[in-house]
């Protein structure tokens, strides 16, 4: 106890500066920085102000529960669906995964912020999520790649965060009752009742969230995984296949992995007409991950339908769900979904179990699919469908994230399978 108080009451020995200069990318020295205003120091007693005295935010859930917390990042009032993520690392990639648009991400790992944020780990151009909910915000960072403190980063992007809230209790509630809509607010003039009413007046089901995150014009993607980080040297020296990637909220690492496997990649907006895509004569089309309810975007299902059977296709997460619907199947909302980097999946084609990165609230009902469509992967936690193939139409898809970022790399080989599929179709043409 004594040691802890000593640590808090002598902040100047711990923290380099309140507004530190940024480290350069190449620096391998780590600097410890302060992200929060340091506890005010009472010289007469030698004790720091108790940190739990300053709750200035509330998360009000639609079930009527009110969670008092401290705010960091942006302030204001924000509405969203609360989901919990069980990843131990990779909060920056999670913050920039566009599939979280409209959602508050609650991290079950209690200690967040200790590696700061850096220039390389962005998974998209913006943070699209509604906000971040964490137990403990690290007061310091110690990582050679750190370029900015998490709180400053969120404030710059106008994203609200809260800490010092019982994330374990909220997670247990979500597991029991399912995902809940909530309102996060730092505005003291708003009553709990007003915030509760706001949370009950909105639903994420049926909302097209893709249109808010997709790119607005086509572009070429060339970046590969950096050689320092490359972990798989298989199958990367072949013929360059042209992949057109529909951006429903695409993560950069999907594009990097395709480029690393030798593909020439063109990214197109979610509303790009199928006829235009086919005119570009791609060797394959990728339907990306993306936020929200797959049933809320019938235009995207129509696009997928028009492309099926014309070129090999690969669907990831939202892309997989859209493929499921385009094949005549149904999607449904799960109780609290899968969000994290520790989901075991069995690849039914090889018998191999892969530990996978997942982020979805919806799933394809395999019983609704027509004959000929095979379930290729199953989530071992709940038996839900984690992958599909329809060999007759050169379709493959995964409900989860083979590109990881963050997460294990067990499923990376699926990009090689897609390249092989494009190759065999081209050879037999
Ligand atoms: N990662 C994703 O593509 C998410 C898909 C969809 N928004 C879901 O929640 O199921």
TrEMBL record:
SUPFAM superfamilies: Carbamoyl phosphate synthetase, small subunit N-terminal domain, Class I glutamine amidotransferase-like. This is Carbamoyl phosphate synthase small chain, chloroplastic. Belongs to the CarA family. One of its GO terms (molecular function) is ATP binding. Keywords: Amino-acid biosynthesis, Arginine biosynthesis, ATP-binding, Glutamine amidotransferase, Ligase, Nucleotide-binding, Pyrimidine biosynthesis. GO terms for biological process: 'de novo' pyrimidine nucleobase biosynthetic process; glutamine metabolic process; L-arginine biosynthetic process; pyrimidine nucleotide biosynthetic process. Transmembrane segments: none annotated. Gene3D superfamilies: 3.40.50.880, Carbamoyl-phosphate synthase small subunit, N-terminal domain (3.50.30.20). Its EC number is 6.3.5.5. It comes from Cephalotus follicularis (Albany pitcher plant). It catalyses: L-glutamine + H2O = L-glutamate + NH4(+). HAMAP family: CPSase_S_chain. GO terms for cellular component: carbamoyl-phosphate synthase complex.
């Amino acid at each position: 106890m004594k040691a802890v108080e000593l640590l808090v009451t002598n902040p100047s020995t711990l923290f380099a500066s309140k507004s530190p200069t940024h480290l350069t990318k190449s620096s391998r020295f780590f600097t410890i920085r302060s992200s929060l205003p340091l506890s005010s120091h009472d010289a007469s007693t030698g004790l720091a102000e108790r940190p739990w005295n300053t709750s200035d935010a509330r998360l009000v859930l639609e079930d009527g529960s009110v969670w008092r917390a401290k705010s960091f990042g942006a302030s204001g009032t924000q509405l969203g669906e609360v989901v919990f993520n069980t990843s131990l690392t990779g909060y920056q990639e999670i913050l920039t995964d566009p599939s979280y648009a409209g959602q508050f991400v609650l991290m079950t790992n209690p200690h967040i912020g200790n590696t700061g944020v850096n220039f390389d780990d962005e998974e998209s151009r913006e943070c699209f999520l509604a906000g971040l909910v964490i137990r403990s915000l690290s007061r310091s960072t110690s990582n050679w790649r750190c370029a900015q403190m998490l709180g400053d980063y969120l404030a710059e992007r106008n994203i609200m965060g809260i800490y010092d809230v019982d994330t374990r209790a909220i997670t247990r509630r979500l597991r029991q009752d399912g995902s809940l809509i909530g309102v996060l607010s730092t505005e003291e003039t708003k009553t709990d009742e007003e915030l509760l009413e706001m949370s009950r007046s909105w639903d994420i089901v049926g909302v097209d969230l893709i249109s808010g995150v997709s790119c607005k014009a086509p572009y070429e993607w060339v970046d590969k995984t950096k050689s320092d980080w490359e972990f798989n040297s298989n199958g990367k020296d072949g013929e360059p296949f042209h992949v057109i990637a529909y951006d429903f909220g695409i993560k950069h690492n999907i594009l990097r992995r395709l480029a690393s496997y030798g593909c020439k990649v063109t990214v197109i907006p979610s509303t790009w007409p199928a006829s235009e895509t086919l005119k570009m004569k791609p060797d394959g089309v990728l339907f990306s991950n993306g936020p929200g309810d797959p049933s809320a975007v019938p235009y995207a299902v129509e696009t997928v339908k028009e492309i099926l059977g014309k070129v090999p296709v690969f669907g990831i997460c939202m892309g997989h769900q859209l493929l499921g619907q385009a094949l005549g199947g149904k999607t449904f909302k799960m109780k609290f979904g899968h969000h994290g980097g520790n989901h075991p999946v069995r690849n039914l084609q090889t018998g191999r179990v892969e530990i996978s990165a997942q982020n979805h609230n919806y799933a394809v009902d395999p019983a609704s699919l027509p004959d000929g469509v095979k379930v290729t992967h199953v989530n071992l936690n709940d038996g839900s469908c984690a992958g599909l193939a329809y060999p007759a139409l050169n379709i493959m898809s995964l409900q989860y994230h083979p590109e990881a970022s963050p997460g294990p790399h067990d499923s990376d080989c699926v990009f090689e399978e897609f390249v092989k599929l494009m190759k065999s179709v081209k050879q037999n043409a």
